[in-house]
Amino acid sequence: MGEAIKVVKKEDYIYEVPKTGDMLVPGRIYADQPIIDHLTSDVAGTKEWNALKQIVNVASLPGIQKASLAMPDVHPGYGFPIGGVGAFDLKSGVIAVGGVGFDINCGVRNLKTKLTKADLEPKKQQLADELFRIIPAGLGSHGDIRLTMDEIDEVCLKGAEFSIERGYGLKEDLEYIEENGKIGNAKPENVSDKAKQRQLKEVGTLGSGNHYLEVQYVDEVFDKEAAKAFGLFKDQIIVSIHCGSRALGHQVGTDYLKELEAASRKYGIPIREKELVCAPFESEEGQKYFTAMNCGINVAFANRQALVGLTRKGFSAVFGMDEKEIQTLYEIGHNTAKLERHNVDGEEKDLIVHRKGATRAFGPGREEVPAAYRQIGQPVLIGGTMGTSSFILHGTEKAMNETFGSACHGAGRAMSRKQAKKDFWGEDLVKKLSVQGIIIKGHSMAGVAEEAPGAYKDVEEVVNVMHNSGISKKVVRLKPLISIKG
């Protein structure tokens, strides 16, 4: 039996694991009662790998600030729970591979068009076929961009700018990408040759697993003022691209898991789970990982930008539209560790904020938010499943005060990929969703089964926790029409 972990309801949609034992701060979970029941049943049962235990483990890491946070899509990950947020003091705190994950800067780009659902329907199958043809996807897929080792270093430094220089996108895109598509403190010399070699043919590829390119429409508008500021309207066609840093990011994680394991021993940091190895942020090892991880962030920016260029070409081929008519709404990552300034107990502090399967959700007035959105707050892009809904929310001042400007990133898995392949059959899902008017184009039917809607939590429930708690507020709901899967 698992060791009992006490969870206390503090107020509606906020629960806490009180500070006990080695915990330096409490655990704080944004959830409703069914989500909490699911978490506690994992602990009470035989599941040693459970999110509540991971929330406690993160709360015990040196230099952590306020609380070990979990969003409503929380589920077990490597080290940190997915849906976890941990902010650390730069002097006394640590940086952890498990707080970022292996798919560094996995994230979402949303594109907006002037097309409506009625415009799309007559050409839906044609568009699905064209996007499936031109978007490289699947395990080990290769893109059109073939690079040398020196050019990979450029990608590590330039991010989205690299792909734009190669003709995949518009300079105007950069204003609406988190960090303007390029983060500093990136040092390619701290990325292994193996990581670089694995990426030579993978810039501009979707990958596999839960990555997708989805054509959606605005099903419901919740906040007319915010929707207007974001340029959104009822029945509008939106494209969501969800992917990350591909092989380079995964190899950086693998490489530094070993280096930070040695650093944990060197600096005497107790490790409660093998993937929770870490190093003091300002140590040599911590800075090496940080600067290599930033290379992974830039590679993900470049990768999504290249896919945006291909998506525009696909729409242009089918609808004869100018590629400039397809604009970037926003892009955000959800596997990062970033230097940010936040208020902690009345004091402005520079922190290293880990978001593992959690999205930045900055509120109104922050200079990091594009000027066009600054009065409303940052767009918060929440991916659902290929058979349900996705959402666009906006950040709030409450998020800045409570969660270091963070929110959930998706629905969150309710069952493992292995179990999903036992419970669902890819071909059956494609047929079932086709009846609902959703075209699924997958490179692997086993992969489609892994991503079955039934393998995930109810995205409506997850988003409502964020909305009702005031952490991020609903703007529009999106429903899928076409989903391209790896």
Secondary structure blueprint with pairings:
Blueprint: E1 8-11, E2 14-17, E3 27-30, H1 33-44, H2 51-59, E4 68-75, E5 82-89, E6 94-96, E7 107-116, H3 117-120, H4 124-134, H5 149-158, H6 160-165, H7 193-199, E8 212-221, H8 224-230, E9 236-243, H9 246-266, E10 278-280, H10 284-319, E11 327-333, E12 335-344, E13 347-356, E14 358-360, E15 379-382, E16 390-395, H11 397-402, E17 406-408, H12 417-423, H13 426-435, E18 439-442, H14 445-450, H15 459-469, E19 472-485
Parallel strand pairs: 3-4, 18-19
Antiparallel strand pairs: 1-2, 2-3, 4-5, 5-13, 6-10, 7-9, 7-11, 8-9, 8-19, 12-13, 14-17, 15-16, 16-19
Keywords summarizing the entry:
486 residues; alpha+beta; 7-stranded mixed sheet; 19 strands; 15 helices
